[in-house]
Design brief:
By secondary structure, this protein is an all-alpha fold. The chain has one domain. Helices cover 75% and strands 3% of the residues.
Length: 151
């Protein structure tokens, strides 16, 4: 069976890969407990009077530790994910602002050039029309108007 990142064990809602880690550790400890009792006579009597009681207590301790550890690990991962997300967002925002400023300056320059060019074309057309009509033309050029503070 293929597993993906969104594959969870029902009820406990933990990722299947973590559940497999827990199952392997738990099975190993139960087998180790059994081997210690049967072959070496070492009984963990502090956990209970019978093998079943000791295994149940061992299981409860392991499950509790596993879930506490998994929760702490998950909180740490969420914390790092939030920090990373915030950093990427801030970098993206700064990049967007810089690109917007550069684009705005380029558009402003192009628009200014077009307006200046249009002013010169209109002034030149008025000058030629006045010369063709034989009238005097004393309107200052756009460059002179700009120098004198006009638009």
């Amino acid at each position: 069976m293929e597993s993906n990142d969104k594959d969870y064990v029902s009820l406990v809602r933990i990722p299947r890969k973590w559940f497999y880690v827990f199952a392997r550790i738990f099975s190993s400890l139960v087998i180790l407990n059994l081997l210690l009792e049967v072959f070496f006579g070492w009984k963990l009597e502090a956990l209970g009077g019978t093998f079943l009681t000791r295994t149940s207590v061992l299981m409860a301790l392991i499950v509790g530790f596993f879930f506490i550890f998994a929760h702490i690990l998950e909180e740490i991962m969420f914390g790092y994910a939030k920090l990373f997300r915030d950093r990427v967002y801030a970098e993206g925002k700064a990049e967007g602002i810089a690109e917007g400023k550069a684009e705005g300056k380029a558009e402003g320059k192009a628009e200014g050039f077009q307006m200046a060019n249009q002013a010169w074309v209109e002034w030149f057309q008025r000058k030629e029309a006045a010369e063709a009509a034989g009238e005097p033309f004393d309107e200052p050029s756009p460059a002179e108007q700009h120098r004198n503070g006009g638009n």
